[in-house]
Each structure stands twice: as C-alpha cells, then as structure tokens.
Amino acid sequence: MHISLNINGSDYPVAASPTSTLMTALRQLGYFSVRFGSDDGTTGAAAVLVDGKLVNSDTLLVGQATGKPIETVEGFTQAVGELHPIQKAFIETGAIQSGYSTPAMMLAAKALLAQNPNPTESDIRDALSGILCRETGYVKPVEAIFRAAAYLRGEELPPYDGPQIVDATYFAEMPPADDPDKTPDFSGGQAPGGNLQPSVSTKPQTDIQLTSGIPETAVVGKPETKVDAVKLAKGNPAFVDDIDMRGMLYAKLLTSPHAHARIVDIDDSAATGLPGVRAVIHYKNVERVKYASGGQSYPNPPPHDQVSFDNKVR
Fold it and tell me: What pLDDT sits at residue 108?
C-alpha cells in the first residue's frame, strides 16, 4: 500500500505492507533514533510521539499513523550544533551511556513536560516506566528531566557540578542473629491450605558514617561531558544496524549440504543471470582467505587454520 507519513513536520510517501510497523517505516526513511529492542513494545526503545503521545512504534502498524503528526528526536532541533533543552540536560547530567534507549527517554520527557512543566520525581519515574535501560539506569535521567524542566520554565541554572562526594565508611559488624552459618528458621507458621510459610526478616544498612574534608582534585570528582554525548543525544547513527550506505549490496550465503566434501566444479551462470545480482563469489574467482577461528578481531592471531572460499567445505 502507498501512504503518507508526517514526520517532524514533513510529509513522506511510503510504500509498505499492511502488516509493516511504524518502526520499520521510520528506520527505512533514515530515522535511526528509533531503535529496535523488542517486537512487542517490552523495551520501549522504539518509542516515538504520535499526536504528542508516547507510543511504541514496534507495535503500531504503519497505517495507524497515517494523518497523525509523528515526532522523533531528529526533529528536536534543525540547526547544526543546536540542542534542545532536554538534550542539553541529558548531556550535562551524564544521563547517556550507550545511548540506545536515550531517544525514547527524551521523547518521554518531552511528552511529560508538555503536560506538566513542574513534575515530581514520581511523575518522571512514571513517564520513564515503559522504557527499559540496563546500563544508565534511571537516577541520571530523572535528574536530567528535572533540569530540562527548569530550562523550559525559563530558569537560569548554574553549571552542573555533579553529585556530592562523601566518604562512606561501613563499620557495622554482623550481629549473631545474621550468622551466615546458622540454619534459617522456616517455622513461620501455617498458611491457608497447610503450607509452611518462611519467616523472613531483613536488616537495612543504615549505619553509614559520612565524613567531609575530602581533598579536591583537578579531574577526579569533576563532571565531564561524554565524548559522544551530542551524537547520542541527537539520535544519530551509532550502532551496527544504523549503518545505511546508499547503494549497499546484500550477500546471500549458500552453504554445503555435506558435512565434509570437495567442490568439483561450480557453474554460476544461472545465478549471475538473475536480475539484481552483481557477483557470485566462490573459490574459482577469488583467492583463498586464511583466518583463525578464535573469535579475535584484527589483527587475527594464529593459527590461521580456517579458509574462506576454499574448494573444501566442512
């Protein structure tokens, strides 16, 4: 089917299958800030704004987005070098690590702040709750959204100086009741139906002594901007699946049906005659490539006991 999508204020013609997702269409159009994390919206990495609301583009059919404004982080700013206050806050607070789910988090922040310019921490965490992030976590993004909210309210903010550094000394000794060699007591009583219920108790670690007087250093303890933070905040291509070389060729690997054999001859005339085929590569038209199978990247250490494009298959 042929449809039109309005993305960041511009209309794009799209030829897509009725079962194609909005995520697939957006990435095909070059919007690589929309990241694949799941097929069912579990990770939230493919979240975009549709009609100003955060939706998972990996579960939304492309036809469902027709006639509705779609926004990705590529539309946050137009000028080169310009940053949206949300992007600026994420960079300043160090809320970006790999950056894989950062675009979705920033879109969640924009949707929240459009409705609530002065959110509580609970509001922010609720807005981020549908986006999974295993490396950055949520403390820094929450801090970034508080800072972005202040920027959008027109407040003047001092330079970000990072968290307060303290010397935390854990001096508690394990009491006898917490003896790891002691068998736990599972005689907590009977539950309905007669099943034993364990008696569980926890002891929070509250005995932390905070001391001051830590000497200041020139670098350690000072916030630094991540070297690729701007690229990641803008949702620019940063991962293997984001590589889109125009005119790129795709390879189809044909493996042997035999576990160990010699190729006697290859007739590739039928394959080379197929529409769109640029080349058929095999042992008769390329040199043998020796390599090691240890999984190391270049330079590949010896022994180079494997061969690509050989007349022996195994």
Answer: 98
290 beta partners: 307
Under a CB-based contact definition with an 8 Å cutoff, are residues 106 and 85 in contact?
A: no
In angstroms, the Cα distances linking 98 to 118, 136, 197, 236, 239 are: 28, 8, 43, 12, 10
Q: What residue ranges define each of the domains in the chain, with the CATH number in brackets?
A: 1-163+224-245 (1.10.150.120), 249-314 (no CATH)
Q: Say how many C-beta atoms besides its own lie within 10 A of residue 119's C-beta.
A: 19
- Evaluate whether 107 touches 73 at the Cβ level (below 8 Å): yes
Tokens of residue 174, six digits: 């394990």
For residue 71, give the H/E element and its range: strand 69-71
Residue 55 neighbours by CB distance under 10 Å: 22
Report pLDDT digits (tens) over 260-311: 999 999 999 999 999 999 999 999 999 988 888 876 666 778 888 888 889 9
CB-based contacts of 8: which residues, under 8 Å, 6+ apart?
A: 70, 71, 72, 74, 75
Per residue in 52-99, pLDDT (tens digit) is 999 999 999 999 999 999 999 999 998 888 999 999 999 999 999 999
What is the amino acid identity at position 68?
K
> What is the pLDDT, as a whole number, of residue 96?
94
Q: Alpha carbon of 234 to those of 47, 91, 121, 125: distances in Å?
A: 15, 10, 25, 22
Provide CB contacts within 8 A for 257, sequence distance 6+.
none
What distance lies between CA 40 and its chain's CA centroid? 15
pTM exceeds 0.90, yes or no: no
In total, the chain counts a number of residues equal to 314
**pLDDT at residue 136, rounded to an integer:** 81
Q: Are 235 and 72 in contact (CB under 8 A)?
A: yes
Tell me which DSSP letter residue 301 carries: P
> Is residue 233 classed as helix, strand or coil in its secondary structure?
helix
Contact 144, 95 (CB under 8 A): yes
